[in-house]
Amino acid sequence: MNILVIGASGLVGSHCLNYFAQKQLSVIGTHLKFETDKTVFFDPLSKDGFDFLNNNFIPDTIIHCGALTNVDYCEENIVESYNLTVKSTKLVVEYCKSRNIKLVYISTDYIFDGINGPYTENQVPNPTNVYGKHKLEAEGIVQGLNDYIIARITNVYGEEERSKNFIAHLLTLIKSKTDKTFNLPYDQFATPIYAGDIARMLYLLISDGKKGIYNLSSTDYYNRYQLASKVKSYFSEADDLNLNAISTQSLQQKAKRPLLGGLLNNKFITEYPNFELTNVDAFILKTIKNGI
Ligand SMILES: NC(=O)c1ccc[n+]([C@@H]2O[C@H](COP(=O)([O-])OP(=O)(O)OC[C@H]3O[C@@H](n4cnc5c(N)ncnc54)[C@H](OP(=O)(O)O)[C@@H]3O)[C@@H](O)[C@H]2O)c1
């Protein structure tokens, strides 16, 4: 099987690239601005588009992780967000259509308004910020294909070259004993998931020829303050990390956030009852064991 991972310099894509390579699949990963030694440059919006693949590697499946993921930045840079998230997906979909390629599109719980989450696959989306609106529009384009998976995820954590994700960032600060204060919303809830689990789940779904929408989430359900407190609780030396619980309203983030967000994984777990999910505790313990 030939797999192309678009956005493999990022958190989710890098885990997919590593895991699929471990599984001895033929896999290529791409970056846009952040060059890594495991990825090749690819910009769906450039005039050369997919030419970089030549005829030596025609993918059977594309995992599309590419999007503008800074939610507050999207709110103020709508055209850029549209181009990177919607227009680029349109071009990826056209390529898949022309070559009969399966597309796995990575989406988000931000397509929901957060009034009554966590959400199932069947609930009606109602995004309240630019990022969520563009992700939903991209989902709609992907649904024009015969063979697609839309994998919705949220609040992803894990090992990452840039340590951008919240937990990796906290661990970096703890390790370096940096004095830092975080004001964290006690009213924004989500279902955090380990990026390595997403890669393992996608591997199963693709191998089994599954189609349609799947929520990929864990059974953890935390607000941002609880999540940070949990990480901190494992480290007696983390005194320099100051955590304040505050409301989302007082944070004044540029983009509106779904408050009761998160995703229910009943569909996936019903189809894969033996799948062992990582939770936040297990991930931190593993990190400590491996020497943070
Ligand atoms: N992380 C989360 O908590 C989370 C939650 C819900 C949904 N998601 C979705 O999951 C996907 C992956 O997220 P992530 O956290 O791994 O994001 P990330 O770390 O920001 O990585 C995004 C990746 O996509 C590349 N990229 C960005 N725009 C692109 C475009 N238009 N065409 C091709 N490549 C592009 C980036 O390249 P460079 O970095 O090299 O420029 C990077 O490799 C995204 O679609 C995101 O919306 C993530």
Automatic annotation (TrEMBL):
<protein>
    <recommendedName>
        <fullName>dTDP-4-dehydrorhamnose reductase</fullName>
        <ecNumber>1.1.1.133</ecNumber>
    </recommendedName>
</protein>
<comment type="pathway">
    <text>Carbohydrate biosynthesis; dTDP-L-rhamnose biosynthesis.</text>
</comment>
<dbReference type="GO" id="GO:0019305">
    <property type="term" value="P:dTDP-rhamnose biosynthetic process"/>
</dbReference>
<dbReference type="InterPro" id="IPR005913">
    <property type="entry name" value="dTDP_dehydrorham_reduct"/>
</dbReference>
<comment type="function">
    <text>Catalyzes the reduction of dTDP-6-deoxy-L-lyxo-4-hexulose to yield dTDP-L-rhamnose.</text>
</comment>
<comment type="similarity">
    <text>Belongs to the dTDP-4-dehydrorhamnose reductase family.</text>
</comment>
<dbReference type="InterPro" id="IPR029903">
    <property type="entry name" value="RmlD-like-bd"/>
</dbReference>
<dbReference type="GO" id="GO:0005829">
    <property type="term" value="C:cytosol"/>
</dbReference>
<dbReference type="GO" id="GO:0008831">
    <property type="term" value="F:dTDP-4-dehydrorhamnose reductase activity"/>
</dbReference>
<feature type="domain" description="RmlD-like substrate binding">
    <location>
        <begin position="1"/>
        <end position="269"/>
    </location>
</feature>
<dbReference type="InterPro" id="IPR036291">
    <property type="entry name" value="NAD(P)-bd_dom_sf"/>
</dbReference>
<dbReference type="Pfam" id="PF04321">
    <property type="entry name" value="RmlD_sub_bind"/>
</dbReference>
<keyword id="KW-0560">Oxidoreductase</keyword>
<keyword id="KW-0521">NADP</keyword>
